[in-house]
Amino acid sequence: MTGKQYDRAYFDKWYRDPRHAGVPPDVLKRKVALAVAQAEFYLGRPVRNVLDVGCGEAPWRAALRRLRPDIDYRGLDPSPYAVERYGRSRRIGLATFGQLAELRFEEPFDLIVCADVLHYMKAAEVRRGLSGFAELLRGMAFIEVYAKGDAIEGDQENFVARSAAWYRRAFAEAGLTACGSHGYLGPELAANATALERL
């Protein structure tokens, strides 16, 4: 990732301190509902498993389980603090984004979530991690990323302001097809999307 320290102080500041902008619970609830609905629309069935990359303390897990109680959730994060504190109870493993190039699991995922992560990484790690998505993904990826010119709040330390065109190229090179609202279809589902569903 970067030289940032994702320790307890970081999470206390950006996720619990009311003086700093975090994602309000109602916004997270809507975001999770959007991602699940999009994925299920293209899959044609309920989402059964989710990989949450750069999950931090796994706030998506509880929201996902409220929508789909039986969902198989797996989180990955580069923070030793988050994994040591919540790894067992919230099923979080220690891994960087770039390691997705090699990491494989028992089966591919219906939904891969990567929210508010890529714009803090070097370009080489972004491309390296994305290179694994085509094999890891059976359904849709929800990749929330901010580009140059976007109005952002919250943690801007080490924020990399890349152009939207840069991300579009990187996603396309990884075999991902945009379908709107941070949604990206894997190769299997993209083949069945209509021309105007693909952005």
TrEMBL record:
> Which GO BP annotation is one of this protein's?
methylation
The entry's keywords: Methyltransferase, Transferase
Give this protein's Gene Ontology molecular function annotations: methyltransferase activity
* Ranges of residues in domain Methyltransferase type: 51-138
Name under which the protein is recorded? Methyltransferase
Source organism per UniProt? Oleiagrimonas soli
